[in-house]
Amino acid sequence: MHIDKHILDKVNEWLTPVFDEKTQEAIKEMITSAPKELEDSFYKNLEFGTGGMRGIMGVGTNRINKYTLGKNTQGLSDYLKKVFAGEEIKVAIAYDCRNNSNTLAKIVADVFSANGIKVYLFSDMRPTPELSFAVRHLNCHAGIVLTASHNPPEYNGYKVYWQDGGQLVPPQDGEIIQVIENLQYSEINFEANESLIEYIDTVIDQAFWKSTVENASFSTPQEAKDNLKIVYTPLHGTSVKAIPNVLDLAGYKNVNIVEEQKVPNGNFPTVKSPNPEEPEALTMALELADKIKADIVVGTDPDSDRLGVAIRDLEGNMKLLNGNQTMVIMTAFLLEQWKRSGKLKGNEFIGSTIVSTPLMLELAETYGVECKVGLTGFKWIAKFIKDFPNQKFIGGGEESFGYMVGDNVRDKDAVAAILLVCEIAAQAKAAGSSLFQELINLSVDYGFYKEHLISITKKGIEGANEIKQMMINLREHPLTEIAGERVVCIEDYQSSKGKDLMNDDQFEITIPKSNVLIYYLEDGSKICARPSGTEPKIKFYFSVHQVLPTAEQYKAVEKELDAKIARIIAEMKLN
Predict the structure, then answer these.
(1) I need a labelling partner for 57 at 20 to 30 A (CA). Which of 261, 393, 448, 484 fits?
(2) 149 is catalytic
(3) Is 249 exposed, middle or buried (0-12, 13-18, 19+ CB in 10 A)?
(4) What value does the CA radius of gyration of the chain take, rounded to a whole number of Å?
């Protein structure tokens, strides 16, 4: 097999004494027995995407290992020392349940400390939202979480947080990446200064739990809490370190944990994918819910930023909600609570993303608040909070099963979101309603919005090229009609240009550049295409809607909307 010269140059660099013997042996083994794997391990450098840097663990520039993470950390150390010259620089580090996460977290701590930076390192795995909280609680300059979120077991990753507790955004991200890219591997300082590494746990835990309960509780009577039967699964992840404690502290005692998925395990043995977006991941939780006649199922991904929710429909069957539905239920509830308590003064806002349901805009208008819409990723909602300090943030989410309640945590937070959804469910049940009925009521009030997501996986070099070509085709040969509806507008976030096809007008898009394309149809339907920033996937998001005259027509209208989505998918040949 022929291997490109630029790949061989990188391989040869990794065979020098800068790299340890174990690494060199693994590379030599690949040269002889797995040249294809060698090529994939070195053909590019791992890049920062939507949610930090994620990749397969192993040797090479396109893998997660002590050298790629060491280089990141050395670059970040250099940048922090330049930006905060003369200050005592502090960083917090957390890690999740993934294989090697604790080892990699210690290597990252070592490099920071070797550069004279004070490190607060969690003594055991913790949820990602707790790290975001800890950055601000401890007045840190930055934070790191070692996690690959919901990716398969062979992955790990590196998320970087800034002083505000939010993930890196421009211009810092670009500046830091530049520093990292200019570094040589030989410049990484791995020699730890142990006196600068302080282990943290219980004190931060209790502050985080207390803050969450204060932020996501809304005067639910104890009797209503006692009457709500909850099934919870951490899917072998870190949320078990926080969610049972938070629910208990908030007064929810009827919590039933899926025993087989309770113990953290980086191999995620009982699921194909530890992602609450995937219905299969919640199978065991749904079975337990039916067995014990539970009202609600809640589950989290390995680092506890995403949540999955299932509730009883009108026939009493468990129904999985999508991320848009949970986001809308939670936002509508928060807005109503703020209104009732007289806290809406006209300077509040909620947050959403360009690929999420347009219903968020309708809710904002009804309650007289602003809905700020950004790119995919909670770092953009966190940036809104930082950029508009005179406005109060109520809550916000995105379609990918994430939500943020208030601004104590500046990233998607399944810990607070699960407490909030239990509050809503408990209050609805006590009032003779249900979460499902509340969802139907919203559809009657605002129109029935139905969203759907398709993810197409394309692995390796060939896959990356296929995804690239799909986006080129959609740009260079734009569709003019889809499923019998004219395309009236196309927004291209990569070129920052939009085109109103009805008036032949062009307009500027002020949101930061991103590889996203959105088609709007004449009937108000919306189709969005974007390659994933953290996985080898291209994602297509669909949103359709129509009037729901009465609650009784919910099923019939849902059937029509599902059929409309199916027609669009078939016509775009995405089946």
Answers:
(1) 261
(2) yes
(3) middle
(4) 24
Asked if residue 467 lies in contact with residue 458, where contact means CB atoms within 8 angstroms, the answer is: yes
Report strand pairing: 90-95 vs 118-122.
parallel
Predicted pLDDT at 401: 93
Q: Is the omega angle on the peptide bond into residue 549 within 30 degrees of 0, that is, cis?
A: no
User: Among 267, 256, 221, which residue's Cα sits nearest to residue 101?
Assistant: 267
Active-site residue, from 101, 149, 217, 443: 149
One-letter amino acid of 535: E
Residue 341 token pair:
């308590």
Q: Using CA atoms, how far apart are residues 7 and 47, in angstroms rounded to an integer?
A: 17
H-helix or E-strand spanning residue 345? none
Question: Which residue, 6, 61, 96, 9, is CA-closest to 180?
Answer: 61
Set out the domains of the chain in order of their start, with CATH numbers: 1-43 (no CATH), 47-200 (3.40.120.10), 207-446 (3.40.120.10), 448-571 (3.30.310)
- Kind of pairing between the strands at 392-398 and 370-374: unpaired
Identify the CA nearest to 416 among candidates 228, 258, 250.
250
Q: Which residues contact 254 (CB under 8 A, 6 or more apart)?
A: 225, 226, 227, 228, 229, 230
Q: Is 143 helix (H, G, I), strand (E, B) or coil?
A: strand
Q: What is the pLDDT of residues 39-87, one digit of tens each?
A: 999 999 998 776 689 999 999 999 999 999 999 999 999 999 999 999 9
Structure tokens at 312: 């009883």
How far is Cα 386 from Cα 384, in angstroms, rounded to an integer? Answer: 5
